Amino acid sequence: MNRAMHATGIDDLAERLVDELSGGQRQRVWLAMVLAQDTPLLLLDEPTTFLDIAHQIDVLDLCRDLHEAHGRTLVAVLHDLNHAARYATHLIAMRDGRVVAEGPPHDVVTEAMVASVFGLACRVIEDPVTGAPLVLPLDRRRSATAPAS
Known about the structure:
Elements: H1 2-7, H2 23-36, E1 41-45, H3 53-68, E2 73-77, H4 81-87, E3 91-95, E4 98-103, H5 105-108, H6 111-118, E5 122-126, E6 133-137, H7 140-143
């Protein structure tokens, strides 16, 4: 358990009750509890909810390390398309309980998919840091007149 607490940055919360924690602290505690089970498969539902951007990246980097360095399979629900595209090796986009698209991020994260699943016009460009697809939502007032790329 100590290794899991250290990995999620909650060492200093060990003596506190869960009811005393902020939403972000609770989220990291739940993740530590999952890690402590040391299973080969982790199912995570919105693991970055309630976390500030720095802790979101810490959690996603940890998830990547668990997959790449420790061979664990992670299945995560993420609503942040840019995080999903940057960190996942395989994506499944769903709408109304149906699979709309699945595959590698470059195949799934497209302007057409974002419009179909979210009803949102956007541009998808290459992330200058990772090369993953990067979704740039368009202002709804301008999206009707914006030229497609």
